[in-house]
TrEMBL record:
Catalytic residues in the record: 350
Predominant subcellular localization, coarse grouping: cytoplasm
Functional summary from the UniProt entry: Catalyzes the first step in hexosamine metabolism, converting fructose-6P into glucosamine-6P using glutamine as a nitrogen source.
Subunit structure: Homodimer.
Protein name: Glutamine--fructose-6-phosphate aminotransferase [isomerizing]
Compartment list: Cytoplasm
Length: 355
């Protein structure tokens, strides 16, 4: 218990460690002056597109986020579940870059995928939390996310640090230079602290602890966060939860929604994407479904929401990192209400070393 620093669970402690973890992840890796990421990585390495990211579980959601960012900045990239990765089914060459995203650096599926990629001649890069882990030792290059030890089986702070580290890797690979991006990354720790200082998530958890199932929707960079919100809910509450791309709701999941299935909708910023998600919210709201909006003060979202989980007004990357913290807290408080074994959920392991 000493290691919990007064928190009831490691998971809650680790959720609260995210501001310091992200500061550590960013330390010495950004230049305000030039707007560049100064991550010391891949220098002198010949690599070419497409970039393939492989991962499992929560790390796969971070990989989806990283691949979306790379594409946004003009690099052909895709995320593949490590268990679904087959080097012989991809056009890998000696200049291909394969990035393994793994908190522990020991996940069997991810290590197998990286080894296959290496045998096919690709350059491999491990994005990991654990210094000296198998992935760190075996890959050609390594980028540490510096989240600090994560004890709780359900990953929390490692996901936030993976998102931030992958943002830096994506900026480096695409030579994306932007002072605004750097400022925005620097603003994440304080923005997360603001979320941690509210009690909104606990109230939402108390309200919906007995729901039949939980749905999460998000578009673009919020899509991996919707998946992660649902995974967190499943892992520690043992209740059914699903994450969807907001645009997919009408292609099936809409048949499942009702009064007992709250929909958590991630919608921040202005513009077409946000407006489309508002359209999706209206569709569910019209069917009497409770809406929990994770939003940054948009009146046109709050109007349709039964509950609001606020995030500060930030650019999309930072906004996704911070919005996820609200979902971590909801999952934590629902599990707490239900008296679950939060740090060690049944049937699950922190690091899965079999394929
Ligand atoms: C297990 C853990 C998850 C984790 C996944 C991948 O299933 O319970 O929390 O996301 O492994 O782990 P890794 O260490 O490769 O990120």
């Amino acid at each position: 218990d000493a290691g919990k620093s007064g928190y009831d669970h490691y998971m809650l402690k680790e959720i609260h460690e995210q501001p310091s973890g992200i500061r550590e992840c960013l330390r010495g890796r950004l230049s305000e002056l030039t707007g560049r990421v100064t991550l010391d990585l891949l220098e002198g390495t010949d690599w070419d597109e497409p970039v393939t990211l492989v991962a499992c579980g929560t790390s796969y959601h971070a990989a989806l986020f990283g691949a979306a960012l790379l594409r946004r900045w003009g690099i052909n990239a895709q995320a593949i579940l490590a268990s679904q990765f087959h080097a012989d089914q991809l056009p890998l060459t000696s200049s291909s870059l394969v990035l393994g995203v793994t908190q522990s650096g020991e996940t069997a599926d991810t290590l197998r995928a990286l080894r296959e990629a290496q045998r096919a001649g690709a350059t491999t890069l491990a994005l990991t939390n654990v210094v000296g882990s198998s992935a760190a030792r075996e890959c050609d290059h390594v980028c540490y996310i510096r989240a600090g030890p994560e004890i709780s089986v359900a990953a929390t702070k490692s996901f936030a640090s993976q998102q931030v580290a992958l943002t830096m890797v994506a900026a480096l690979l695409s030579d994306h230079r932007s002072r605004e991006l750097i400022e925005s990354l620097r603003s994440i720790p304080d923005a997360i602290q603001q979320v941690l200082d509210t009690t909104q998530a606990r109230t939402v958890a108390e309200t919906y602890r007995d729901a039949e199932s939980y749905f999460f929707i998000g578009r673009d960079l919020h899509y991996p966060v919707a998946l992660e919100g649902a995974l967190k809910m499943k892992e520690i509450t043992y209740k059914h939860a699903e994450g969807f791309a907001a645009g997919e709701l009408k292609h099936g999941p809409l048949a499942l929604v009702g009064e007992q299935t709250p929909v958590f909708a991630l919608v921040t910023g202005e513009g077409r994407a946000a407006n489309k998600t508002i359209g999706n919210i209206k569709e569910v709201e019209a069917r009497g479904v409770p809406i929990v909006a994770i939003t940054d003060g948009r009146a046109d979202v709050e109007r349709y929401a039964d509950h609001v989980l606020s995030v500060p007004d930030l650019e999309p990357i930072a906004s996704s990192v911070v919005a996820n913290v609200q979902l971590q807290l909801v999952a934590y408080w629902v599990a707490n209400e239900l008296g679950r074994s939060i740090d060690k959920p049944r049937h699950l392991a922190k690091s899965v070393t079999v394929e």
